[in-house]
Amino acid sequence: NRVDILSTSSPAAPDTQVSFEVKSFEKPNTSENIKRWCEADPSHSINDIAILLRTFSSSVAIELELLQKKIPYRMSGGRTLFNHPEIGSLIAAMRIAKDSLESQSEKDRYKHASAFLRYPAKGLDSGEISEIVKLIARNPRGASNVIRVRSTGDQLKSYVRRALSDKADLWEWLTLLSDQSASEIINIFMDKSGIQQHILTTEMKAEKQQEVSELFESFKQYIEIALEERQNMDLNQVLGHLDDLESASMDSSTNDIESVLITSTHRSKGLEWPLVIIPELWQGSFPFIPREKAKAPNFEDERRLFYVAMTRAQRHLVLISPADKNLNVHLSQGRGDTPEWIGKSRTTASQFLYESSLYLGQQMPSYISDKKVPEDHYAIMPPTMKRYFKKASENLG
């Protein structure tokens, strides 16, 4: 039911630059764009910048990058990285595998043992968990026995006894993995703790299920690719690195310093910023595509949401996608359609980028000022772009 009209800005509106970049572990796009913005003009501030996400699970990679580069940020509407119970459980698993928490302070033993027991909790009572954690914090070497003894309590329901017994087994199993890599420990922990099944049975909405799954996947990918493959870190080095990032995260949360805003596209409606960065533009993330084939994505709603995200930028919009060689060919041909073959994949750029005619659009200002488009370019222009060129040229007189 949308009216077919061309959107034109006021003559007083500032020019908006659009940049398209390819995500790379070697090239930290987000932090580089923030740095360039702040260095370009003395009047520019880090407070000018917003990073807009389709779902907050996409924040993991962004936060890790900003923390490494010591760029302060604030989160609006979602948890910061180290406040996710899911991430806490993975770090706890690695800590237990290293030395059963023996090298940790009593305070940190309490934190990690609690994270281990609370996610997935599987029906465990919060009070029961607290009592067990107090005992573990005093004597981590006997942690699995403490948990197992508590699992034999006659007053406990059968499913609680079973959950505690499973946790005791898992703790024992983790202590045998000290010579494994961090990513291997994470994979084993996720498999034996039944995290994926827990997500499917406790999260009612498909979008939330996928968001939690993506949270785990992003963190695992960072550990495996950025730290182990590219920096050859062992378990101790990975844990030390994560400690440094967590300390930086606590420093970043201080309210009295300038910082980059990370928020969702939904929460950005009605707001604007000089620089807007939209990362993680892969097919399945934005547009969001449910895992269940029975639940078809609503591409029109997703397209409108993408429009909202793009139009939050006042001076500069940065779009970041995975390295997709097909997209470059598609845009170079001036096409603005969605390929029939496109499917959900972290390595495939969002269909909204395929539909964007971005390369032609970047040349449009010179076409309009010259009131002329090269014949070969005009021939491949989408109909809407031809209409826009004609209207804009007429407005120039």
Query: What's the architecture of the largest domain, going by CATH?
Result: Orthogonal Bundle
Roughly what percent helix?
Answer: 40-55%
What is the fold named in CATH at topology level of the largest domain? PCRA, domain 4
Q: What's the number of extended β-strand segments?
A: 8
Count up the domains: 3
Structural class: alpha/beta
**Any idea what the shape is?**
elongated
The succession of helices and strands, N to C, reads EHEHEHHHHHHHHHEEEHEHEHHHH
CATH class of the largest domain: Mainly Alpha
| Average pLDDT figure | 90
User: Main sheet, how many strands, which sense, barrel?
Assistant: 6 strands, parallel
Gyration radius from CA atoms, angstroms: 25 Å
How widely separated are the two ends?
A: 33 Å
Distinct helical segment count: 17
- Share of residues in strands: 5-15%
Q: Order of strands side by side in the largest beta sheet? A: 1-7-5-2-4-3
Poorly predicted runs are none
Question: Would you mind describing this structure in some detail?
Answer:
With 397 residues, this protein is an alpha/beta fold. The protein has helices spanning 29-40, 59-68, 85-99, 106-118, 126-138, 143-150, 158-174, 182-193, 195-202, 206-231, 235-252, 299-310, 325-332, 351-354, 358-370, 375-380, 383-395; strands at residues 17-22, 49-53, 73-76, 260-264, 273-278, 282-283, 313-321, 345-349. The chain folds into three domains: 17-80 and 258-326 and 338-354, Rossmann fold (3-Layer(aba) Sandwich); 83-247, PCRA, domain 4; 361-395. The chain contains 17 helices and eight strands. The strands form two sheets. It has a six-stranded parallel beta sheet with strand order 1-7-5-2-4-3, with helices on one face. Strands 6-8 form a two-stranded antiparallel sheet. The radius of gyration is 25 Å and the shape is elongated.
